[in-house]
Amino acid sequence: MNNKNKNARPSVKMLLMKSRTLIALALLLAIFGVITPNFFTVTSLVLVAKHVALYGILAIGMTAVIVSGGIDLSVGSIVGLSGVIAGGLIIEGLPIRFMNVSIYFAIPVVILLTLICGTAVGTINGFLISHLNVPPFITTLGTMYISRGFALIRSRGETYSNLGGEPVLGNTGFPVLGSGNFLGLPIAVWIMIVIAAIVMFLFKKQPLGWHIFAVGGNEKAAELSGVKVKNIKLFVYMLSGFCASVVGLIAAAQLASAHPATGESWEMNAITAAVLGGTSMSGGVGTIGGTIIGAFVIGVLNDGMVMLGVSEFWQMVIKGTVIIVAVIVDQFQRRMEAADAIKLRNE
Predict the structure, then answer these.
(1) Segment among 135-139, 147-151, 186-190, 310-314 with least mean pLDDT
(2) Domain limits of the chain?
(3) Which of 114, 123, 134, 198 is the most buried (most CB within 10 A)?
(4) Cα–Cα distance measured from residue 97 to residue 82, given in angstroms and rounded to the nearest whole number
(5) CATH number assigned to the domain with residue range 19-335, chosen from the 4 options 1.10.287, 1.10.10, 3.10.590, 1.10.3470
């Protein structure tokens, strides 16, 4: 009996492996707190929280995609496109060329139209991947360029600035989405919490969530079990596009301006946050809680390096190294878990 309990108990090494993201976050906070005296000021922490919210929301959608066995390289471009769509609707309205007029919408409508556009890009990704069997890497690489191109075309390569709107047009209030606070936390953080809670509930309590894991774990087995694999793939890419458009709105609101280059390389931050949080690049494994912790690691790392004056080039090197190390550690953990499972069966 004692022998069985001993075998069932996870080893210290495995506990450390599973807690690696929290440990990394604690170490980063300690290091930057000591080296950078201003790191723990209210202003700095609010800024970090805003950045974490952006990475976190983007990574939530990415987690669903990776768990299903896919990848989405287009999210950064959807961020830029969404910001430009919102900025264009606020500054220029919706032009009706043949009538020589422009229609201006209230901010809730602007937000809704932007979310529809971002989700539509995700829908295109999902359809190409699920129904036409185009590989996820190729599909999302293509839509990454297409989305960025449309953002440049819409804005003519320029920045939409001063997105405060005009009272006479009834489209004021957009910047509140990025700069507003509720109960001491930025609104962006609350949005991240709500989206994370919904997707976490989906993953743990709903058949749709279980099916996402089943497809990522073994697509053929899931299909034979009656899972509608095509619908699942379509859904996760729609969710990813939706999350990216939310981030695009928040980013534009925080700056009160929208530029088509916004979001460049942010897909790497989303992937890194997901992998750091324990999401397996092989699919079938991942948690939203882990992804949020991973987003905190990325946010603290990015802002800490900026405060220390680390070169942008070295920041890219460091983030690339983090991705590789995270994947290596993840593979090592999977092998350890497999070895422990075999050992338990044998004993």
Answers:
(1) 310-314
(2) 19-335
(3) 114
(4) 22
(5) 1.10.3470
